[in-house]
């Protein structure tokens, strides 16, 4: 998927201006996730975080993991919202097509 696929076009924003803020939030969540993974590479190993308990940063790593998880959930919700907006627009377009003479 191209990054531009999630950027709302002006004609879409006329009907759903909130998509601009959601696109910004979605990109910000991706940046936050990438930054936290870079700061805590142990999160990319798939190992149990308890193994890092001896590290003074264990709590920080656990919280970073929680933020990453919540960011993913929020991004999934944003995706569902976008799909519903797209479906609503398609239905409206189909309704207009059926009313053409």
Explain the overall architecture.
- The chain is an all-alpha fold and 101 residues long.
- The chain has one domain (3-43, 54-92).
- Helix content is 68%, strand content 0%.
- It is built from three helices and no strands.
- It has helices spanning 10-15, 18-39, 58-98.
- The longest helix is centred in the last third of the chain and has 41 residues, at 58-98.
- It is elongated.
- The protein starts with 9 loop residues before the first helix and ends with a helix.
- 3% of the residues are buried.
Query: What number of structural domains do the residues give?
Result: 1
Order of helices and strands: HHH
* Residue share in β-strands: under 5%
What is the CA-CA span between the terminal residues?
38 Å
Q: How helical, in percent, are the residues?
A: 55-70%
**Number of helix segments?**
3
The class by helix and strand makeup works out as mainly alpha
What are the low-pLDDT stretches, counting only 5+ consecutive residues below 50?
none
Radius of gyration: 20 Å
* Main sheet record: none
Overall pLDDT level: 86
The number of distinct β-strands equals 0
What shape does the CA trace take? elongated
Question: What are the salient characteristics of this protein?
Answer:
68% helix, 3 helices
Summed up:
With 101 residues, the chain is mostly helical.
Give the topology, please:
Elements: H1 10-15, H2 18-39, H3 58-98
